[in-house]
Design goal:
13 strands, globular, seven-stranded parallel sheet, Rossmann fold, six-stranded parallel sheet
């Protein structure tokens, strides 16, 4: 017997999403003895800007040819899109939703009010949730980035029906792909910075000021240690931020000790083998932090979007983040660089803590997957 799955999510454009899906597939397939096939549909094709596909009756009829419909993971339930029937990028009407007969797994979705929210969108998303839970074949999970708190804030009548699950990027390290790579020497320090959503990310500190602060500390690391620097883009626009940062680094170092990792479409996970070669990562993007933690690599989260900070709160590591728009940012960054320069035990101690934290995250996932397995046996 073969179980045929249709999966709508982001499969291109952001290597963090790919890491999330690979971690999910590794965990999910362990629930089945049957063979599984997955038809992947790129969510961006449904975006208003791309407008290549629609969540319409033709889509519903197509979905019903499969055994299971999966949406996500990803931060797809941003409640700011007025054009949409749900107020989110999943622009699916109540009529189309009711026409989907097969089981639906909402998989580690982000629910987000940080880009703005309106009463109309609250009502539309509540109608969407009503339609989902009128069915008896829906399993709904949100990722551990404060999403459940958003549900409790606006839609508390549904909160008990929704499970919180660790983002599946936390399980990247368990995949066969990553197990094939071994760290070389951990003689590198990684940085991930981003330029998209600049009006949110740099609303107080300013982009140029942020680059000035970061470049000063990177130059210190290069001057006072023999570590090399890896710069990690996750989407194409990250290269713009990296190029701006390079202009502020000492040219000799840029030519000899600074590397920029590639984004290779279809081989996105290659980037994470370079993660494994780092002893510490300063990460701005959500999955730059999640995947580093998964691999047991100490981090400092450079928080420029609130939900990414909530991640550290929810896993019980609030001290491993710093809000770049907060007054303590420069001091926290300098403190971590000082310890990287002067304290040989700093990363050793943190690595032990991260490995212990990953054990706790795995146990949290297994608790949810016991419920998911019961649901699967009932509906598939």
């Amino acid at each position: 017997m073969t179980i045929n799955i249709i999966h709508v999510a982001s499969f291109s454009g952001n290597i963090g999403d790919v890491a999330n899906h690979e971690g999910f597939y590794h965990q999910f397939k362990q629930l089945f003895s049957e063979e599984i096939t997955v038809k992947k549909l790129e969510i961006r094709k449904f975006y208003k800007r791309w407008n290549e596909q629609k969540f319409d009756m033709e889509f519903a009829n197509y979905v019903n040819q499969f055994d299971l419909f999966i949406i996500g993971g990803g931060n797809f339930f941003e409640l700011c899109w007025d054009y949409s029937a749900t107020g989110t990028t999943i622009d699916i009407s109540p009529e189309v939703l009711q026409s989907i007969q097969i089981p639906i797994l909402i998989n580690g979705i982000g629910v987000d009010d940080n880009k703005g929210i309106t009463p109309s969108n609250i009502l539309k998303f509540k109608t969407f949730l009503n339609g989902l839970f009128e069915k008896d074949n829906v399993f709904f999970t949100v990722r551990n980035d404060g999403s459940l708190k958003v549900i409790q804030k606006y839609f508390k009548e549904f909160a008990d029906l929704i499970h919180k699950v660790p983002d599946h990027g936390f399980f990247l390290h368990e995949t066969d792909y990553m197990n094939a790579f071994q760290p070389l020497n951990r003689h590198n320090i990684g940085f991930n910075i981003a330029l998209d959503m600049s009006d949110i990310r740099y609303q107080h500190i300013g982009y140029e000021r942020f680059l000035e602060i970061m470049s000063r500390q990177i130059n210190r690391l290069l001057l006072e240690t023999d570590n090399n620097i890896y710069l990690f883009p996750h989407i194409q626009s990250d290269y713009n931020a990296i190029l701006d940062l390079l202009k502020l680094l000492k040219n000799e170092y840029v030519r000899t000790r600074v590397s920029i990792t590639p984004i290779i479409q279809g081989r996105e996970l290659d980037t994470f083998k370079y993660y494994q070669d780092c002893k510490f990562i300063f990460g701005m993007r959500f999955h730059a932090n999640v995947c580093a933690i998964s691999l047991g690599i100490p981090t400092l989260g450079l928080i420029s979007y609130p939900k990414h900070g909530y991640l550290y709160d929810e896993i019980g590591m609030p001290d491993r983040k710093t809000d770049i728009n907060h007054g303590n940012f420069t001091a926290t960054l300098e403190n971590n660089v000082d310890r990287l320069i002067h304290d040989d035990d700093f990363t050793v101690m943190l690595r032990k803590n991260y490995l212990q934290k990953m054990q706790e995250i795995k146990e949290e996932k297994e608790n949810i997957y016991r419920h998911l397995k019961t649901w699967i046996k009932k509906h598939l």
